[in-house]
Design goal:
Blueprint: H1 13-42, H2 44-83, H3 85-120, E1 131-138, E2 146-149, E3 162-164, E4 169-176, E5 181-185, E6 192-197, E7 203-208, E8 214-218, E9 231-234, E10 246-250, E11 258-262, E12 271-274, H4 288-294
Antiparallel strand pairs: 1-2, 1-12, 2-5, 3-4, 3-12, 4-5, 6-7, 6-9, 7-8, 8-11, 9-10, 10-11
Helix pairs in contact: 1-2
């Protein structure tokens, strides 16, 4: 008959060390969680500093994981594109012909706009970017939607600065570390972006839903005038975002509010640009001629 196995960890030094290590890890995690809760409640600035430090530490690992994810997605798309290449060839040929016609029209409109601006004395202001950096991570399954930027105060990043991707507006900076920064995405439930419809300038507010989409609410009363397919850009109202940055495209039409998808998907964006905070120009003072005319 085999001897009974030991029931207490005292018979095994390895088991003792394992239990001791588990207690140390559990107590350390409890202490860290308690520290975060207390700082969030009584010292918000210290809480942001701890978050920035953790972001600086985790940024390299997050960047490596994002690289692997993007490469896997690109490989999957290439395989899918190779399989369906024959069926898409005719559609691409039609799209190319349509794009060439639109390109000719756009060239003519651009020349006309330049001529009108020269006649009116309008000068476009250039907004030099603060920095170009990578988005190394983003939350995808939470009502709070944040992303981590691989640039911080060392590169000139500061709170409130807009973050713009190749397709459009991504969000704005809300916390800054030395080598990383936290970006509040436009699809976050607490984010509101002043926009206007690109076709006629109708003003609206783009409110994040927390699920990757936006709700468009017109500033005027009554039912929503927006329709599926409408494109919305930043209006420049209230500052922060300069005008004419692509924001969203409407998905449906509803009296309560129009659902829209963001033009820039942070899950697929690689490099983004951080711009300076936009300052709306002050209203011009009335001229002497106008004042005398009123008298």
């Amino acid at each position: 008959m085999a001897p009974p196995s030991p029931r207490r960890p005292g018979f095994s030094r390895r088991a003792q060390f394992s239990i001791f290590a588990s207690y140390v890890i559990a107590l350390s995690g409890l202490a860290a969680a308690l520290l975060l809760v207390l700082t969030a409640r009584f010292d918000p600035q210290g809480h942001n500093a701890l978050q920035s430090l953790a972001s600086d530490i985790a940024a390299p690992a997050s960047g490596l994981g994002r690289d692997l994810t993007l490469r896997f997605a690109e490989a999957t798309e290439e395989i899918s594109g190779y399989i369906h290449a024959g069926s898409k060839n005719a559609a691409l040929s039609r799209d190319l012909a349509a794009a060439q016609r639109q390109g000719v029209e756009a060239t003519a409109l651009r020349a006309e706009n330049q001529r009108l601006k020269a006649l009116l004395g309008i000068v476009d202001k250039d907004y030099a970017p603060i920095a170009a950096a990578r988005l190394v991570s983003s939350t995808g399954a939470s009502s709070r939607r944040y992303a981590t930027l691989a640039a911080g105060s060392t590169q000139g990043i500061a709170n409130g600065q807009p973050v713009v991707g190749p397709e459009g507006l991504v969000g704005r900076i809300v916390a800054v570390g030395r080598q990383s920064a936290r970006v509040l995405l436009i699809v976050d439930a607490a984010n509101v972006t002043p926009v206007k419809r690109a076709s006629d300038g109708t003003p609206a507010l783009a409110i994040g839903n927390g699920d990757g989409r936006l709700t468009l609410r017109p500033l005027s009363g009554g039912s929503s005038p927006f329709r599926a397919g409408d494109v919305f850009i930043t209006s420049g109202s209230g500052g922060i975002y300069r005008p004419n940055i692509p924001v969203a495209q409407a998905l449906n039409s509803s009296r309560e509010g129009t659902l829209a998808r963001p033009m820039a998907d942070p899950n697929r964006a690689d490099y983004v640009i951080v711009e300076p905070v936009f300052q709306a120009p002050a209203p011009e003072a009335p001229s002497a001629f106008t004042t005398e005319g009123k008298r």
